[in-house]
Design a protein that fits this description.
Length: 452
């Protein structure tokens, strides 16, 4: 069965941490809801009897379902037919298209992040870009599903994207050739000074095992003891909650990794260290975690866990701020609800909903010539219509503090290019590891979560 195969999977390449629904409780209809159901039935009858053209029942029912879910948060949705097929292809991580993570904002398609190495990434499409036309046809006011379906297509075919980039007067017109999107979940590289860089691009199947394999390969390549590790989670929109736990567990010997709390039985869970991996694979090695506004969901779970335990220094920009869990609830053989069922919390009990993970050291991406404009118009969870509110009531100004200018970061993209620096955030992390001691970058493994 299609739904059963999806439930068995624990990966989704999007800005959600998808988990199978282990229990499903059906809410009893309150007697006071009767009049509201009567209004719904009366509306249905009026439309069927009086609308200018005949309307099929399935159209009205789908509209009613979509309307109910639209009243909730932006991550809840009804899936059937082509929607489920797209979900399957995302889970497989193998499809033909452009390689973009997008949302609908004010009727326009907005880019959350391009997948690293994808056709969109190679053509220079950036987070915060708005796609207004596809092959010259206006898509503003259409549906996100239709736009995504148009952007996908056979490998080697091309599509013209008209892009509005905030801060630029003229739109960009880019011809992008579709390719097979086979995302490499984990890549690694050994840098000078025996410093490893492991990039996690998505949380799909076996990411924890892949990171362990990458670390072991780096140790083999090194000329001596590893002196540092950069764990790069930038532009990683999330995926499997189980893999986020597995990755965190590689660096933690004790304590809580993450907890989730929901209303339904079985939706309140605690995930602890030592359940996926014994010990700290990089014991004694200082670790820096890189995040940015495109780091969401599962990425935030890892960054929050290592930050709260003092196992890593978190560097970069404030993350996306998606602190909710979506469960896939089957509705028969060929349909399902992707429903927000819980919030998740860091080891210190902090919700990242809205506020995201704040880096220990804010490092802007100065090598991006459009950085200032992109930061001004960047989209995070708190910008999405209908998003869940953080229970602690975080203030807007507290989420803006990473826009304060720092005298250490005044070089322009042109000046950095002249120095041979293509990725300033990574460069700064590597230099930090080279000039500091292990104790000043990350606490020893096994320490208790620190109080902020």
């Amino acid at each position: 069965m299609k739904i059963a195969s999806l439930l068995r999977s624990a990966a989704l390449v999007t800005a959600v941490a998808l988990i199978p629904a282990t229990t499903m409780t059906m809410a009893q209809v309150d007697a006071r809801s009767g009049p509201e159901f009567s209004k719904l039935l009366a509306t249905y009858q009026r439309i069927k009897a009086s609308y200018v053209e005949p309307v099929e029942d399935d159209v009205l029912m789908r509209g009613a379902i979509d309307g109910m879910l639209a009243a909730l948060d932006p991550h809840s949705a009804y899936l059937d037919g082509s929607d489920l097929q797209r979900l399957e292809t995302m889970i497989d991580g193998n499809y033909s298209g452009l390689g973009l993570s997008v949302i609908m904002e004010e009727g326009a398609v907005k880019v959350i992040s391009p997948f690293k190495g994808s056709p969109a990434d190679k053509m220079g499409i950036k987070a915060g870009d708005f796609i207004t036309h596809l092959d010259g046809e206006l898509i503003v006011g259409g549906t996100l599903d239709d736009a995504v379906a148009q952007m996908r297509g056979p490998e080697g075919t091309s599509i013209q994207l008209t892009i509005f980039r905030p801060g630029r007067d003229e739109p960009l017109e880019l011809d992008v050739t579709r390719g097979v999107i086979e995302l490499e979940p984990v890549t690694y590289e050994l840098q000078d000074g025996n410093i490893g860089v492991i990039s996690v691009n998505e949380f799909s199947r076996d990411v924890g095992a892949d990171v362990l394999g990458a670390w072991q390969a780096l140790q083999t390549e090194a000329t001596g003891r590893m002196s540092g590790l950069v764990l790069d989670l930038r532009s990683n929109p999330g995926g499997s909650l189980d893999e986020a736990v597995a990755l965190s567990d590689l660096f933690l010997s004790s304590g809580r990794i993450v907890s989730q709390r929901g209303r339904a039985r079985g939706e309140t869970l605690i995930y602890n260290a030592e359940t996926k991996h014994r010990g700290d694979m990089a014991e004694g090695t200082p670790v820096i975690v890189l995040i940015d506004a495109g780091s969401a969901s599962a990425s935030e779970i890892v960054a929050g866990a290592l930050q709260d335990h003092g196992r890593a220094l978190v560097m970069g920009q404030r993350s996306f701020g998606k602190g909710s869990v979506q469960s896939l609830l089957p509705l028969g053989r060929d349909a399902a609800l992707k429903l927000t069922t819980a919030r998740y919390y860091t080891p210190l009990g902090k919700s990242v909903q809205e506020g995201g993970i704040a880096p220990d050291i804010r490092v802007p991406q100065l090598s991006d010539p459009d950085y200032a404009l992109r930061e001004r118009y960047s989209t995070r969870e708190s910008d999405l219509r209908g998003h869940l509110i953080n229970e602690i009531g975080i203030k807007d100004e507290d989420m803006e503090d990473d826009r304060i200018e720092d005298p250490r970061f005044q070089l322009t993209a042109e000046q950095l290019e002249e120095q041979g620096v293509e990725d300033f955030q990574l460069h700064y992390a590597l230099e930090t590891l080279r000039r500091t001691t292990a104790s000043s970058v990350a606490l020893r493994p096994g320490t208790q979560p620190r109080k902020n």
